[in-house]
Amino acid sequence: xxxxxxxxxxxxxxxxxxxxxxxxxxxxxxxxxxxxxxxxxxxxxxxxxxxxxxxxxxxxxxxxxxxxxxxxxxxxxxxxxxxxxxxxxxxxxxxxxxxxxxxxxxxxxxxxxxxxxxxxxxxxxxxxxxxxxxxxxxxxxxxxxxxxxxxxxxxxxxxxxxxxxxxxxxxxxxxxxxxxxxxxxxxxxxxxxxxxxxxxxxxxxxxxxxxxxxxxxxxxxxxxxxxxxxxxxxxxxxxxxxxxxxxxxxxxxxxxxxxxxxxxxxxxxxxxxxxxxxxxxxxxxxxxxxxxxxxxxxxxxxxxxxxxxxxxxxxxxxxxxxxxxxxxxxxxxxxxxxxxxxxxxxxxxxxxxxxxxxxxxxxxxxxxxxxxxxxxxxxxxxxxxxxxxxxxxxxxxxxxxxxxxxxxxxxxxxxxxxxxxxxxxxxxxxxxxxxxxxxxxxxxxxxxxxxxxxxxxxxxxxxxxxxxxxxxxxxxxxxxxxxxxxxxxxxxxxxxxxxxxxxxxxxxxxxxxxxxxxxxxxxxxxxxxxxxxxxxxxxxxxxxxxxxxxxxxxxxxxxxxxxxxxxxxxxxxxxxxxxxxxxxxxxxxxxxxxxxxxxxxxxxxxxxxxxxxxxxxxxxxxxxxxxxxxxxxxxxxxxxxxxxxxxxxxxxxxxxxxxxxxxxxxxxxxxxxxxxxxxxxxxxxxxxxxxxxxxxxxxxxxxxxxxxxxxxxxxxxxxxxxxxxxxxxxxxxxxxxxxxxxxxxxxxxxxxxxxxxxxxxxxxxxxxxxxxxxxxxxxxxxxxxxxxxxxxxxxxxxxxxxxxxxxxxxxxxxxxxxxxxxxxxxxxxxxxxxxxxxxxxxxxxxxxxxxxxxxxxxxxxxxxxxxxxxxxxxxxxxxxxxxxxxxxxxxxxxxxxxxxxxxxxxxxxxxxxxxxxxxxxxxxxxxxxxxxxxxxxxxxxxxxxxxxxxxxxxxxxxxxxxxxxxxxxxxxxxxxxxxxxxxxxxxxxxxxxxxxxxxxxxxxxxxxxxxxxxxxxxxxxxxxxxxxxxxxxxxxxxxxxxxxxxxx
Length: 1048
Fold this sequence. Notes:
Elements: H1 19-48, H2 68-83, E1 89-96, E2 99-108, E3 114-115, H3 120-132, E4 138-139, H4 143-152, E5 160-161, H5 164-171, H6 174-185, H7 188-202, E6 217-218, E7 224-225, E8 237-239, H8 243-249, H9 263-271, E9 276-278, H10 284-291, H11 296-316, H12 321-327, E10 334-338, E11 341-348, H13 350-354, E12 360-362, H14 371-379, E13 384-386, H15 396-399, H16 404-420, H17 427-430, H18 436-446, H19 450-454, H20 461-466, H21 498-503, H22 505-511, H23 518-527, H24 538-551, E14 562-563, E15 569-570, H25 581-586, H26 591-594, H27 598-601, H28 616-630, H29 639-647, H30 663-666, E16 670-673, H31 685-697, E17 700-702, H32 728-737, H33 743-755, H34 765-781, E18 793-796, H35 808-813, E19 815-817, E20 821-823, E21 833-834, H36 837-840, H37 843-848, E22 852-853, H38 870-880, E23 887-891, E24 899-903, H39 905-911, H40 913-919, E25 930-933, H41 937-949, H42 961-977, H43 981-991, H44 1002-1011, H45 1015-1027, H46 1029-1047
Parallel strand pairs: 3-4, 3-5, 8-9, 12-13, 20-21, 20-22, 23-25
Antiparallel strand pairs: 1-2, 6-7, 10-11, 10-13, 14-15, 16-17, 18-19, 23-24
Helix pairs in contact: 1-2, 2-4, 8-11, 14-18, 28-29, 33-34, 39-40, 41-42, 42-43, 44-45
């Protein structure tokens, strides 16, 4: 080491010696002593276990002598320890009855170590738990070592230590949590203390989710709850502060926290926002739902506790009383017994009690009543007596039967008994078993308070009238006229006698007993009260109604004073005048219910009230009656003639029809007769079959299902035809609501004719063709709403010339669909047919139906014609005269005849590089007078003619286009082989014509043109395919299919 000037003290500061000496000493301290000490310490820890910690240097803060050397060595040592990979740390193995054993055979590196920096108390509790869960790589160093780590380790070195967060992460594993729970169950006496201590430790974690996912919440009954955030939890647990709260929470089975959980732990859980809460009155509604599954007696006891809790909550927060009551108003929190049903408890909601729809009152027998009141309440079977202990304590005084409010509730409750108790059907039955002293007690309760009860509350008047406090409950009406009370047409017992009315004059006035007006008297006592008239009283009723008509004839329009044939009362304006034939036909089977009773029909009283004229609604009723009669299993035998009578009304233009608003509804009523099957001689058999088919379904149809004879020609195959034409006004009104035919109807009609063309006879051809023409004209007129499927077989593709001499064969074979038709062509191509003259007139309709229109090929730009030179003219004459030939060309095709062509080598070689290379080379042909070619002789002749004339002669069109096209393509190929560019271009121009380029040939021409490098022709074919792709693809697919069928 570098020493100071005294030769004894190491240089520790810059002022004590040269800088180099200080740096040398620092290197010795850091890289020498501190680094060499680590292997030594490793040896000690391996052989001495935890005793080896005695040899660890003190951390800088623990040094007693703060000289430079000690401080530098200590600081560097602790830094190296944090970064060292040496196994310096003895681990804890397993707990023993005497404590914790240390293992000295194998130590851990810092990266594999979990350091126990906990306090002694926490360590003694937490470390055994971790070991039980299989965590054995725990190291518990002494305090000095812990301090050294915490002071010297940098942020680059992360020590894994036992913390609440670390333990929580382990216990989030449900398997580990279950293992801990099972271990604790073996020591039930300490289970809750262990749970409290562990939860207290985990709550030290500052994070909000310090317990989330851990099943460590001890519940009542021995189960465990899982912690989660209250804001997102689907399961809420409850804890209590008092025995009363715990009694209320007992219904939350499986969600009540064990009472052994200590208050500080509960407080910590609440502060962390865990899914645990104290009982609040806001919890009562959800708990009430749980209580409903309990036995009635237990449920009642629970409600008693709830109301006690309610009073405590109100005492603490008086302003919240109404809020608390509002939260439970729809829950069954009232409990009462039922009179006449021992051991029966009923649970009611506050709303049901307030609504007065139940026979319930607060039990007046607490304290017990005496005398007639006690008898009264013991005899009112079905009355619910609510226990005061399940009712707010501040409410019973107001609900007492000694108060007006209590009496009012009693009256309402009694009036509910017939509608709520199955065995009671009337108030008379309610009081049938009440002794006289009970009735007297009821009168004593009600009569002194009658004025108060009637003030501002009219709903109680009717129940009061029916109570047995009156000598006769039924005598509560006053007649409008004295003479009417004496007639036998009314029930005299419903009117109050004069002496009774006098005795209770003031009370009756307040009670509102009515003196009936004349109109009310007739409505209530003569009409609605009886619904029907006894047959023996029909004569007396006729005389009585004559008297009523004299007094007030206007009421006949509003009340059921008419009597029909069934002796039922009804409004006069709902009955029909039986003298009108239309009504007789429509309601033939309802004469008794639709017409006035015959014994009353002769009276002049009814002439102004019965239905006589045919209005829109009246006609609707007639039509519906026909529909109803026809829908019966066995329709009556006059239904068809009656339907004609009713339908015939539409065949005339009555002015009042213009104001009818029934047309849209009338369309859907099945009352209209359709054409009969029988037809005049000469009519179509197919048409007769369709009529029979429609009539088998139903002889009467809705107008919307049929067509007027006006439209028969373009729709008879699809819809039935009405028997008779409607009037112009009716037809116009109906078709404005819904057209009788639509383009889809006509299309289906055409499809029918096409599919049944084999059944159409010779004598009807002209008629059918005319109808088809009309159908096309209709579709063209309605082109905007017309959608024609491409595969619909609806087009009769014939020539106009065929119309005069139409044959069945032409008619049956000329049908086509949209996808098989094509405009702008004058030939048929495979399945694609050209549009013929009969269809051509409907050009707009065809375009709307998206019939394909073929675009012709666009030929390339023509090259200027070449002129023949004088030399060629001379050579041509030599050729014609067969002079000076020096080569003979022999052409033949395998299997075909030989043909020879004389020529001049100089001519061939001067025009064609092919011949030039042959004659001007060492090939055998250059010195022989004959050249053999395996090519079509006709192609050789054309090319030799071109060489001598320099003129392209356009071939005449032949009948067999395919065969001629093959020859021309052969010439195109050979012209390229002979390098006759001008001929090749001329042939390309010639083939770029619609006569050759067709949907079925374009692909083969394109393929050949690409093979022969005929680029101009290829461009024409490609554009043609692009312009007519759909047609070309169809024809190509059809040709492929045909070729496959032929080869198979």
